[in-house]
Amino acid sequence: MIVAFSVTPLGVGEDVGEYVADAVRVVRESGLPNRTDAMFTSVEGDWDEVMDVVKRAVAAVEARAPRVSLVLKADIRPGVEDGLTSKVDTVERHLGGGADESA
């Protein structure tokens, strides 16, 4: 499964990068395949692994912020591995080039 999620601290002002970094650090230290972009962090693994990482990422932000917002989207597709890469590669192939050609 792939979960894309966003953790946002509330009540800490406009500059939230430091708090978001705490959540991303948890994801990266999990050892699960992951990718972070400007809006979401995606993580891939089985249900229990991924949900544990999301819970710990939220807890990392919650430890320093009075309120936390969580947005989560899940792609639950048993038997699929390396979805973070293969889904993007498929789109790039349909665009007429490999991922390397889009850079």
Automatic annotation (TrEMBL):
Matching SUPFAM superfamilies: MTH1187/YkoF-like (SSF89957)
Any Pfam family hit: Thiamine_BP
Residue intervals of the Thiamine-binding protein domain: 3-92
UniProt signal peptide: none
Sequence similarity: Belongs to the UPF0045 family.
NCBIfam families listed in its UniProt record: MTH1187 family thiamine-binding protein
PANTHER family, per the entry: UPF0045 PROTEIN ECM15
Identification of the protein by name: MTH1187 family thiamine-binding protein
Species assigned in the record: Streptomyces hirsutus
Organism phylogeny: Bacteria, Bacillati, Actinomycetota, Actinomycetes, Kitasatosporales
